[in-house]
Amino acid sequence: MLLKKTNVEEKLRNYRDKVSHPNTLLEQVNCILKADASHQQKIQNELVNSIENTTNKFNIDLLESDKIYHLSYIKEICIDYRLRFLDTKYFKGNYPSEAIAEIKKLEKKHQIQIQGFRIIAPSKVFKLENADDPLLFAPIGNDYFYLIHKWGNDLHPLRKLLVLPFKNFINLTALILIVSYVTTELLPMRLFAREGDSSMFWLLFIFIFKMVAAITLFYGVALGKNFNHAIWNSKYFN
Q1: Which of 58, 83, 92, 175 could form a disulfide with 165 if both were Cys (CB 3.0 to 4.6 A apart)?
Q2: Segment holding 140, helix H or strand E
Q3: Which residues lie closer than 8 Å to 212 by C-beta, 6 or more apart?
Q4: Domain edges within the chain
Q5: How confident is the model over 94-129, as pLDDT tens digits?
């Protein structure tokens, strides 16, 4: 006599039906999905309409210490890499499902509704009022923030070097001096004088320096550019 093969799906269905009727189970699943959708909508609303200057009552014992950052550290990294640290209501990008899932998990673990989301990202991903690597944070209190999720691509390895001239006035002046000197060295002195002595070189250098400085000033004013320390937490374009 051959034994009948076991149908795993059928056995699974039998186990389920012993506990609850299929119709009842369908209603339960529907309620869970509705509750989850409602919860997700609340999170989306909070991200779009983040409340400024608020804190969240996290259970400190349940937080991961390596995800806690003081505002001073955030300010330093934003200035070095020309990033902004703003409320999520200014963020114009999309939030990945992993970020929403992390928020849900945190809210469930700490039994709170997280508010006051803030994000670190380059200026181009924010909707800034006129006057490539987001990190989502929630405020803990006393200028401490908890990193919830990071997504997107990492910053260019040379970004810190490329934005160094915009860090402060001294760096920008040094760049203008270097560009002016190199340009002067590349220009043939015979175009300006029969004998290219040192006095002619430095006279030409001063002229080129003024020209580069004027172009830089015009570019900065026309496009509303400012130094890193002035924009890292500013909601304004200029």
Answers
A1: 175
A2: strand 135-141
A3: 176, 179, 180, 183
A4: 48-150, 163-231
A5: 888 889 999 999 999 999 999 999 988 887 777 655
In this structure, the chain runs to a length of 238
Strand order in the sheet with 118-121: 68-70, 144-150, 135-141, 118-121, 84-87
Question: Is 55 in contact with 141 (CB distance < 8 Å)?
Answer: yes
Query: CA gyration radius for the chain?
Result: 29
Q: What is the pLDDT of residue 84?
A: 87
Residue 70 — pLDDT band, cuts 50, 70, 90? Answer: very high
pLDDT band at 237 (very low <50, low <70, confident <90, very high): low
How far is 148 from 78, CA to CA, in rounded Å?
18
- Given phi > 0 = left and psi -120 to 50 = alpha, else beta, which region is 66? alpha
